[in-house]
Design a protein that fits this description.
alpha+beta, 3-stranded antiparallel beta sheet, two-stranded antiparallel sheet, 3 helices, binds zinc ion
Length: 122
């Protein structure tokens, strides 16, 4: 079994951004919950886990569309099946903040290619 560079990437175990943004008290922890099709979704905003979205895009199983600029930037994309018109979920770009540098470097080019917007970190 060969070891790929992707296997060394540390992806977020739990969503952390919402507690910080909403200044919610501790205690209840947000989770990535597995839903239809085995995809992990944030139980707060419903976003598909970035690693799952990366796999869908890399394997040609999904496409992105329908971002509005409600907050002054493309804060979400609709994720649909590349075959037919099935809706797989959404991806909220706020979850990019949670990624380790390695995960961001792996995911950002894939996301950029799919949506036509270049994502970088400060
Ligand atoms: Zn979320």
């Amino acid at each position: 079994m060969s070891e790929s560079t992707e296997s060394k990437i540390v992806w977020p175990d739990v969503p952390t951004i919402h507690k910080a943004e909403m200044r919610l008290p501790g205690g209840e922890v947000d989770e990535w919950k597995v839903r239809d099709g085995g995809l992990r979704h944030c139980d707060y905003c419903g976003s598909i886990h970035p690693e799952d979205l990366m796999t869908l895009l890399q394997t040609g199983k999904a496409k992105l569309s329908g971002s509005d600029w409600k907050y002054g930037f493309p804060h979400k994309f609709y994720v649909s099946s590349a075959e037919g018109c099935g809706h797989l979920g959404k991806f909220y770009t706020r979850h990019l903040i949670e990624l380790s540098p390695e995960a961001f470097d792996a995911f950002a080019p894939v996301l950029s290619q799919a949506c036509g917007i270049k994502w970088e970190r400060d």
